[in-house]
Design goal:
Layout: H1 2-15, E1 19-21, E2 33-35, H2 37-56, E3 61-63, H3 72-77, H4 80-83, E4 85-90, E5 97-99, E6 119-122, E7 125-129, E8 137-141, H5 147-151, H6 153-159, E9 166-175, E10 190-200, H7 205-223, E11 230-234, E12 247-254, E13 257-268, H8 270-279, E14 285-286, E15 293-294, E16 297-304, H9 305-316, E17 317-321, E18 327-331, E19 342-346, H10 352-365, E20 371-373, H11 379-389, E21 393-397, H12 399-404, E22 406-411, E23 417-421, H13 425-429
Parallel strand pairs: 3-9, 19-20, 19-21
Antiparallel strand pairs: 1-2, 4-5, 4-6, 7-8, 9-10, 10-16, 11-12, 12-13, 13-16, 14-15, 17-18, 21-22, 22-23
The protein binds adenosine-5'-triphosphate (ATP).
EC number: 6.1.1.14
Pfam family, one: HGTP_anticodon
Domain Aminoacyl-transfer RNA synthetases class-II family profile: 4-346
Length: 430
């Protein structure tokens, strides 16, 4: 069942331009995916939706956009050069490699029970900066996006009106040389993260941790339709890093089990202390009212954009039996995330008056919303296409439109059709 659904979603994603395997004409490249014309719209909508929730609607959160490559010392200070490792074993029979925590006695591929000794791999991608041999410097593609936020903490304090408590948000690419990339975009080697680092007074961390834990769950509750597929998972005390008092994942129930969507982390003063030490710079904060000087503590919320989009595809995918006996595939995805708010169809493509009227509607609506045009094939086929990519509304311009200025508006979820006045369309679909 689980594999079946994942296969269907992978096929749909390819068929309808949501996600393509990268370098497919060369046989693909493990752990890399591209977004197609529909997928890029969804992903942009998803990032905007996060930004609105985490940045725009709050008076004390600001955004940044940092680079993928930073000074190599950053990754020493953060602990990634030494400790960003996975333990890997190889099956002695089929020679496939796995992370140690992926195997339970038996090889997931062939069932064999003998493995090589576990070896540690660093997951950072290395690159070189500089042109002359001998002068090149080894640098890293960022293994997590959040480091740029710590690096710019001081800059933000000095260049904005922010006072603690405040947050710095960022959406950006991260790179990990994963041993076993799998399940479409669940685990890839290049992906995007959305991060919020919220800087607080040490006495206040408990309160803000609980606040963000709740806020982030509310965000996902608003995004997915199947609420029963969301839960918190608390990290066991014995597995916490030394600076964390607690940690929670927000998990989504996928067809193959509960899986991480986002982590809520208690980072204490770890990051600013480390960067202070390695850079020799004072990264403390002075309260403008009390004059107290301290290193702020951090609550981090860090989630995956691509992974969330995959979960949204899983969440919204439905096959419905129709009265006609046919099966309808429909993606009941959040309408703010759908690639297009509405599709506009001229009923026939060879009747100028109808096509012109439909074009007028397209031009008017596209000033406010992302809409899409389709004049190809019969209306039933056009509906089916839009259902599969989750377009909430279809608007058909027909002969009656020329007479009385109304169009047929069809709803994705109910398939109900009603006549709506052209002037009211914009309000209706927004
Ligand atoms: P996992 O346990 O799944 O490897 P993690 O705990 O290492 O994830 P974090 O470092 O906390 O993940 O990263 C934050 C978020 O980034 C995760 O919740 C996930 O949504 C996303 N993420 C992490 N690694 C990947 C990856 N290889 N591919 C896609 N998304 C990822």
């Amino acid at each position: 069942m689980a594999e079946d659904l994942l296969q269907k979603i992978t096929a749909l994603a390819k068929r309808r331009g949501i996600i393509y395997p990268n370098s497919e004409i060369y046989g693909g490249f493990g752990g890399f995916y591209d977004y197609g014309p529909v997928g890029v719209e969804m992903k942009n909508n998803l990032k905007r939706y996060w930004w609105r929730d985490v940045v725009d609607r709050r008076e004390n959160v600001v955004g940044i956009d940092g680079t993928i490559i930073s000074h190599p010392k950053v990754w020493e200070a953060s602990g990634h050069v030494k400790g960003f490792t996975d333990e890997v074993v190889e099956c002695k029979k089929c020679h496939q490699r796995f992370k140690v925590d992926e195997i339970e006695k038996k090889c997931p591929n062939c069932g064999n029970t003998e493995f090589t000794e576990a070896r540690k791999y660093n997951m950072l991608f290395k690159t070189e900066v500089g042109v002359l041999e001998g002068e090149k410097v080894t640098a890293y593609l960022r293994g997590e996006a959040c480091q740029n936020i710590y690096l710019n903490f001081k800059n933000v304090v000095d260049s904005t009106r922010m006072q603690i408590p405040f947050g710095i948000a960022q959406i950006g690419k991260a790179f990990r040389n994963e041993v076993t990339p799998n399940k479409l975009t669940l685990r890839t080697r290049e992906f995007e993260q959305w991060d919020l680092q919220y800087f607080v007074h040490p006495d206040q961390i408990e309160k803000w941790f609980e606040y963000w834990k709740e806020e982030r769950m509310n965000f996902y509750r608003g995004l997915y339709t199947k609420q029963e597929n969301l839960r918190y998972w608390e990290h066991p005390k014995e597995e916490l890093v030394f600076y964390a008092k607690k940690a929670f994942d927000i998990q989504y129930r996928t067809p193959w089990g509960w899986a991480e969507n986002e982590g809520i982390h208690w980072r204490g003063d770890y990051d600013l202390v480390q960067h202070g030490k390695y850079s020799g710079k004072d990264l403390s904060y002075t309260d403008p009212i009390t004059n107290e000087k301290y290193i702020p503590w951090i609550v981090e919320t860090s989630g995956g954009v691509d992974r969330t989009l995959l979960y949204l595809l899983i969440d919204g995918y439905e096959e419905e039996k129709l009265e006609s006996g046919d099966t309808r595939v429909v993606l009941k995805i959040h309408r703010e995330i759908a690639a297009y708010r509405a599709a506009i169809f001229p009923l026939v493509s060879n009747k100028k008056d109808i096509v012109d009227k439909a074009r007028d509607i397209f031009n008017t609506l596209s000033e406010k919303q992302k809409v899409v045009w389709d004049s190809r094939g019969n209306i039933g086929k056009r509906y089916r296409y839009q259902d599969e990519i989750g377009t909430p509304y279809c608007i058909t311009v027909d002969y009656e439109s020329l007479e009385n200025g109304t169009v047929t508006l069809r709803d994705r979820d109910t398939m109900k059709q009603e006549r709506v006045k052209i002037e009211e369309l914009e309000q209706y679909i927004s």
